[in-house]
What does this fold into?
Amino acid sequence: MDMKRNIGWILFVAMLALSTGCAVQGEVTDRPAEVVYDRPIAPGPDYFWIGGDWVWAGGRYAWHEGRWERRREGRVWHNGQWNQHGHGWRWQRGHW
It folds into this structure.
């Protein structure tokens, strides 16, 4: 009975973390090299370029290319950046 209860709590906490958008972050000893690629043409004049982002997946950072998004009135986009953390580096994702 206790084992089932523990598993239930573990599943509940995992589902809660996933539903609230908790992002798992990792740490690397060396920052990946800057990624250079061609930015596609904007789909319209009211679009804003969101730079690419590093995403922690499978025990490493993977690059996700940038994208165009409609401007958000009254909001400002902050690009992602590498920050020193402990003896390595951690990516802080871009956000509005």
